[in-house]
Predict the 3D structure of the following.
Amino acid sequence: MGIDIRFLPPEMQRQALQKMIAQQKPASAPIVKAEPKYHNTPTDSRGITFDSAKEARRYDELMLMLRAGTVSDLKLQVNFTLQEGFKTTDGKRIKPIIYKADFTYHRSGELVVEDVKSEATRTKTYLIKKKMLRDKYGIDIEEV
């Protein structure tokens, strides 16, 4: 139940109106789309949206290789658990550490884990996960 401001003294009416106006969002506020963190351009290819045009081009190349029979079992966005999640002694939940590969496939019977990278996307976190993947699974990431 609200208060009818018409019954307030003029000074309080003015203050109440100013507060109500300040709380309102402009109806025609433009929607500003955030610039991607690494200045990549999300790109669609074959009905799939990729994080970058470079990743979409690589997918097209891998599809040609798949049709030619030089690679097999092509998969996108495969997760590798590098460390399981757990609860601390005080009950705080710690999330697992996951590495998500852009592509995995088999070439000459060997599993290939591939990541499309630019110099800007070789972050400290990525480099640590790359080492953890090698340590836990014996897999080296091929950067394209």
Remarks:
- The beta strands are 43-45, 48-50, 72-83, 86-87, 93-94, 97-107, 110-115, 141-143.
- The longest helix spans residues 53-68.
- The helical segments are 10-23, 53-68, 124-137.
